[in-house]
């Protein structure tokens, strides 16, 4: 054997044909080998040749590596040799040798360049661990040694994160005393957060919208008066206040005032239909509704004996405004309440009527530390909030902002170029957005994006829906490694966060658990799946919601709650979301999730956006239908789409129906409303 060829072997307790299910499927390698971040097949095996693909290697130490590979030897059930393209001097051989008793020797040989010495050493050492993971997976057994605690939070780690972010920092003793007194009185509520910030940095800017600039002291004083004004209208502790606003300072002041009153806040999505608004208000029976004037008619049509207040006056509605209430009310600070007010966020309603979800009151500063553990925001940052405040992600931005004593620049109506202009003019450090907003920014011509100096922007934090791997890479190639992908839900708050390094290694990953969080992949019996296996995603943290307002609850397993998604963990601990549990399509007995098909579609040149749904089929039970939004000027045909998918995915994942549409239906936060794609009236064509 040559000196530069490395060998290693281990025994797997299954026959070669069974072991080949994994060894012959390179897209599964990342689930069993920690150093392999992903492998995408670009051409499947055909008669006389093996598959071709692109592999990404993420060593524990050293830079990310990406290479094209081809199987120059491909004998199913026996042997595969992966060779670099065009560097044929780099190769890895995986040979399956049958042993007595139905076992297999996994014999690995490799020749890699000297720069890969650490990787060679690691793989050689980990072959036995690989064989063990394969054994457990093929036997359908969970790993008894798997981490059951997740990213455990300790007081030392939490304090370290808060100190690093500047949440805990030295300052004038009198200001720190007032800050701590505010937190002691009000707790980790919205009222407590803004009271504490006003005590520490009273004259620093807190809120900035297109009409006003407010300091923390002004927010404190105005919210005191607003709480008193609402109290005079009969709103008290445990009452409900509904908000239907776009992002602006008065909306945040309403949050703070409701918290000071101990009233529950119902956040109405600005994209709700008039009928849905009527239903939500009928269910929650608010004592007051605070709304922007553009929604005044919607609120006026809802019967009920509740106060109606204008938060963004731009029409003659006849309703008193927030400013009028503030100016007429006494300035006396409200006294802390016995029960903190809750925030009720409506679910996205992508599959039907939205439900009210009661958000818990944070247990302390550990809630902020969980997110700051993975997203490196700092005290005093300027944060541009484009994500709607009625959405969980916009709400998270506001709550982080008050903990960091950050200045929030609030975008009332999103416009891609105006957002870039505002970031440049205000020298913002961070942008909180939903993926469709980032897509709109990328849709701007390059010459338009180049007009604005975005050098201050360290963080672009996105959440709300999945981003394709192609888009993630394109965004970071354009703006640098500033993208953070937050995965969570209204119900579980957060599950994982993908930092730029994660997204470079595996662009479709949802990331890793932040501090104090555990993710488990469970089967239908609520038991841990084998290594590399798919199942329902369950999450444990301190901010699991308190239940839906209609009394129902998502599935639970001990102290974990289901997100409603299906996914898996790779061998390095990164989470991947395959799709919604209720979106699984069963076609000809095969289970197919739309997301991998959508990922492949948007990677096709000429495709701007895509969605895949299942439709009834007399022969197959269900078949896949793809709705494709072409790029401007692209020439696409349904047969080309099907042929492209057939090259990259299994036969049963090829859409039988392909429709070209000018756009996809979305809700106010950019999530695709797939239920509308089943409507025969949606505009489609078979060619574009």
Automatic annotation (TrEMBL):
Keywords tagged on the record: Ligase
Residue span, AMP-dependent synthetase/ligase domain: 195-548
Gene Ontology terms: biological process: fatty acid metabolic process
Matches recorded under CDD domains: AFD_class_I, SRPBCC
Residue ranges of every copy of the AMP-binding enzyme C-terminal domain listed in the record: 597-671
InterPro entries, alphabetized: AMP-bd_C, AMP-bd_C_sf, AMP-binding_CS, AMP-dep_synth/lig_dom, ANL_N_sf, START-like_dom_sf
Matches recorded under Pfam families: AMP-binding, AMP-binding_C
Domain of life: Bacteria
An example Gene Ontology molecular-function term: medium-chain fatty acid-CoA ligase activity
Family: Belongs to the ATP-dependent AMP-binding enzyme family.
UniProt-recorded name of the protein: Acyl-CoA synthetase (AMP-forming)/AMP-acid ligase II
The species this protein was found in: Amycolatopsis pretoriensis
């Amino acid at each position: 054997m040559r000196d530069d060829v490395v060998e290693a072997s281990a025994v797997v307790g299954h026959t070669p044909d069974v072991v080949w299910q994994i060894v012959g499927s390179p897209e599964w390698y990342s689930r069993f080998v920690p150093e392999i971040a992903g492998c995408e097949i670009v051409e499947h095996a055909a008669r006389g040749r093996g598959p071709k693909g692109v592999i990404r290697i993420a060593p524990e130490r050293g830079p990310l590596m990406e290479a094209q590979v081809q199987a120059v030897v491909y004998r199913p059930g026996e042997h595969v040799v992966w060779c670099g393209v065009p560097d044929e001097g780099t190769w890895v051989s995986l040979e399956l040798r049958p042993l007595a008793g139905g076992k297999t020797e996994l014999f690995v040989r490799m020749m890699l360049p000297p720069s890969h010495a650490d990787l060679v050493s690691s793989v050689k050492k980990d072959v036995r661990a690989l064989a063990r993971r394969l054994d457990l997976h093929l036997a359908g057994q969970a790993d008894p040694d798997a981490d059951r605690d997740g990213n455990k939070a300790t007081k030392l780690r939490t304090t370290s994160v808060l100190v690093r972010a500047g949440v805990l920092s030295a300052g004038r003793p009198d200001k720190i005393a007032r800050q701590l007194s505010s937190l002691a009185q009000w707790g980790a509520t919205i009222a407590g957060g803004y009271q504490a910030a006003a005590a520490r940095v009273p004259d620093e800017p807190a809120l900035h919208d297109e009409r006003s600039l407010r300091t923390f002291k002004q927010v404190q004083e105005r919210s005191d008066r607003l709480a008193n004004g609402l109290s005079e209208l009969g709103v008290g502790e445990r009452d409900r206040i509904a908000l239907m606003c776009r992002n602006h300072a008065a909306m945040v002041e309403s949050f703070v005032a409701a918290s000071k009153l101990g009233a529950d806040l119902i956040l109405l999505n600005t994209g709700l239909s008039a009928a849905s608004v009527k239903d939500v208000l009928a269910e929650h029976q608010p004592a007051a509704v605070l709304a922007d004037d553009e929604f005044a008619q919607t609120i006026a049509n809802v019967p009920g004996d509740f106060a109606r207040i204008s938060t963004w006056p731009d029409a003659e509605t006849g309703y008193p405004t927030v400013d009028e209430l503030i100016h007429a009310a006494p300035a006396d600070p409200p006294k802390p309440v016995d029960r903190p007010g809750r925030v009720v966020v409506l679910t996205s309603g992508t599959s039907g009527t939205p439900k009210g979800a009661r958000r818990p009151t944070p247990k302390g500063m550990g809630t902020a530390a969980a997110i700051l553990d993975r997203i490196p925001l700092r005290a005093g940052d300027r944060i541009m909030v484009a994500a709607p405040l009625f959405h969980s992600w916009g709400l998270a931005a506001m709550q982080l902002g008050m903990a960091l004593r950050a200045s929030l620049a609030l975008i009332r109506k999103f416009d891609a170029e105006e957002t870039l202009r505002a970031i440049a003019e205000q020298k913002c450090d961070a942008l909180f957005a939903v993926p469709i907003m980032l897509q709109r920014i990328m849709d701007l011509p390059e010459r338009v994006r180049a007009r604005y100096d975005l050098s201050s922007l360290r963080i672009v934090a996105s959440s709300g829906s999945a981003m394709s791997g192609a888009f993630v890479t394109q965004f970071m190639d354009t703006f640098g490694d500033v993208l953070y992908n937050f995965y969570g839900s209204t119900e579980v708050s957060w599950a994982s966060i993908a930092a730029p390094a994660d997204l470079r290694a595996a662009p479709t990953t949802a990331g890793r658990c932040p501090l104090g969080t555990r993710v488990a992949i469970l089967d239908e019996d609520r038991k841990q799946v084998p290594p590399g296996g798919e199942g329902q995603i369950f999450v444990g943290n301190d901010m699991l919601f308190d239940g839906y307002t209609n009394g129902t609850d998502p599935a639970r397993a001990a102290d974990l709650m289901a997100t409603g998604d299906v996914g898996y963990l790779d061998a390095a601990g990164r989470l991947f979301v395959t799709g919604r549990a209720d979106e699984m399509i069963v076609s000809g007995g095969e289970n197919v999730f739309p997301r991998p098909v959508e990922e492949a579609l948007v990677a096709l040149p000429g495709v701007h956006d895509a969605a895949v749904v299942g439709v009834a089929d007399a022969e197959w039970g269900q078949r896949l239908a793809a709705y494709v939004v072409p790029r401007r000027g692209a020439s696409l045909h349904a047969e080309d789409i099907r042929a492209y998918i057939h090259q990259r995915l299994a036969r049963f994942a090829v859409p039988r129906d392909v429709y070209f549409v000018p756009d996809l239906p979305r809700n106010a936060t950019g999530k695709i409303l797939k239920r509308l794609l089943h409507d025969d009236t949606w505009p489609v064509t078979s060619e574009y």
